[in-house]
Amino acid sequence: MFTAETAADVPTRVASFSKEDFLRDYRLGWESRQASLAGRKEVFMGKAKFGIFGDGKEVPQLAMARAFRAGDWRAGYYRDQTFMLAIGELTLQQYFAQLYAHPDVEAEPATAGRAMNGHFGTRHLDEDGQFTNLATSKNSSADISPTGGQMPRLVGLAYASKLYRQNPELHELTQFSTNGNEVAFGTIGNASTSEGMFFEAINAAGVLQIPMLVSVWDDHYGISVPAEYQTTKQNISEILKGFQREGEGQDGFEIYRVKGWDYATLVDTYQQAAEICRTQHVPVLIHVQEVTQPQGHSTSGSHERYKSKDRLSWEEEHDCLRKMREWLLQEGHASEDELTAVENEAKETVKAARTAAWAAFFTPIKQERDEVVHLLNQLVAETGTENKLHELVEPLEHNPTPIRADLVRTVRRALRQVRGTRNHTRRELQNWLEQALADNADRYNSYLFSQSEEAVLNIEEVGVQFASDAAQVDGREVLQACFTANFERDPRIFAIGEDVGRIGDVNQAFAGLQDKFGELRVTDTGIRECTIIGQGIGAAMRGLRPITEIQYLDYLLYAIQILSDDVACLQYRTKGGQKAPLIVRTRGHRLEGIWHSGSPIQMILGAIRGMHLCVPRDMTQAAGFYNTLLRSDEPAIVIECLNGYRLKEKMPQNVGEFTLPLGQPETLKKGTDLTIVTYGSMCRIVLEGARQLAEVGIEVEVIDVQTLLPFDVDHVIVDSLRRTNRVLFADEDVPGGGTAYMMQQVLDEQQAYRFLDSQPRCLAAQAHRPPYGSDGDYFSKPNVEDVFDAVYEIMQEADPKRFPAIY
């Protein structure tokens, strides 16, 4: 382990700096500090809703920025403003624009006002949604708030460098990498190292031996909770000493420990650490100790409530900018007057940026407000509803800082007052409202999914073809052939997961592919679902096409947070600035037992909006989805039927080329009496139930929705209900889960309630998880007899003479 003392034994980099270098860093540090101070004031003045700032972290971030090169990547957290300023990927005006939530990509390119302040990112896509040249830009993946949540993605960003270096097939992709020379820099607060994701990511990086450089900003606290409650021995680098490699060429980490106020040693440490990381692909952890937080955690409270006077005094004395000032004077790099001038100039620079950012944000809103007030006053004159409308107009007219919600709210309420009247101004107000709602939909609701030519719904459909003598094979062999064809077609595709490599996954769909394509493309991982997904997210952000396997659907719970908070909302939270076309392959529904029979569709649907969810009933359908998704630029989960791998299917002639469109249900059986809407393994059960119902004169129509996200984009199901006038929704999720979702989509979204002659019904599993054994499955999940009885009861109610009671 390297410490401040041992760092003195290595050649110093800071000695080569000029006076201009020192003053530049000092100026940037003070500009960042003044931005933090001003930002807190803006929140308390009501011009911003919340503030969280990077004060106290300026000097170590300046040192880190010195080691950051074009092509490198950052996965950080919400205190990295100094670093972003120092690498030239954030301006002070953009900093304040984010604080004000300016919903304009030009003003606030990181999130277009969608994330709270301190959430940074660079734009990686052009106007057409295509990747720019990421090998020549300084790249920051888009931040998320959940503490430690940046770590899984960081693993993937660094893993991509390993693949770009070691896989010759990728060497031509110079838009994304220069021979894998890129370092993935991660930052995290000391308290967040208590999260399991941190330890999982550290272990994964040590196993993979990837160029991942993690900085821990240690200010001793996690909000109000001190280190004695956070970390064993109150020292993260101490307890990670076992990861330290024993020597060059050995696996493991390099671990450094340095003071957060020691500018010279910080610069030397980061230069040395980044060089080892970059050239040798050795992961590095830099524990930056004795960091301070002058304004406390955020604008939500004051750290004076939980820090002692001695601690506050110590923090003031060890403020990194104060210490840097002392060092510059002591070493003769600058005079007192020069440093004072820099500090004063920084304050004025920040003030100008803040003023410009507020004007850019507020002026358009004020102009819109003035337009609305003018129209409302005209409406008063034309309708004679002066008293009622004045109660709406006056507060808006005299509001010093209105927001757009105030404008729209007032117009909507005003139009209520004059409903039923006809005049020119009322039509103008209606037109204004329609345009405002459209503009704000773009500002706040757009880019949940890709809007590029490679979006899922733009992928050309290619029909599946079968030879007249097509072989009947196990379903797993269809997938195996599909994956083989796609791996041959696109060298960017790789697959990782538990047991994926040597044995070809537990159900053999990757059997033989590691031998054919090598360990870099079909790779075993440890049992670490969260960072398997993170490994895929980061690699996908860097232009690769990962298939990340979660062995069983039940285990998706280990990764659902990172899927939800990171990849699912990536396009949205960057307003189309970043993308990660990750495919998550898993299997579920029926098997045996509480932890291997999962169908938590309700949980998944609620958590992953922004991803697609494919629920194929067999492996040919699954192959069609993979072919589509691997040509698209959007993330998705594919849930294969766990009991379908050994069932026989015909082998398609074009197994790697046919594509299955998402959001297109398939009618598996025509019928006139009732429609059953289902998916996945339930399709076979429902079809058998339909066969038995036909024996008693009930003809049901069976529809496989095929994908739940998107869901029936052409409203095929409502067309069925126009004919049958009755519906049953069936799946294996808990009551009120996937069935309730499908019912809402069909009855509410498609307005199919208009065609119903009977109460719509749902058939789901029991509320508990299914116990072990075939009897446990039968009495816990819908079976053929349940399907029969549910449909029969609906028909009996409609025609009791024709369908007398069974029981």
UniProtKB/TrEMBL annotation:
Entries under SUPFAM superfamilies matching the protein: Thiamin diphosphate-binding fold (THDP-binding), TK C-terminal domain-like
Name of the protein this chain belongs to: Transketolase
Family matches, as CDD domains: TPP_E1_PDC_ADC_BCADC
Task of the protein: E1 component of the 2-oxoglutarate dehydrogenase (OGDH) complex which catalyzes the decarboxylation of 2-oxoglutarate, the first step in the conversion of 2-oxoglutarate to succinyl-CoA and CO(2).
Domain of life, source organism: Bacteria
Cofactor(s) demanded: thiamine diphosphate
Organism: Hymenobacter rubripertinctus
Family matches, as InterPro entries: DH_E1, THDP-binding, Transketo_C/PFOR_II, Transketolase-like_Pyr-bd, Transketolase_C
Keywords: Oxidoreductase, Thiamine pyrophosphate
One Pfam family from the record: Transketolase_C
GO terms for MF: oxidoreductase activity, acting on the aldehyde or oxo group of donors, disulfide as acceptor
Biological classification of the source: Bacteria, Pseudomonadati, Bacteroidota, Cytophagia, Cytophagales
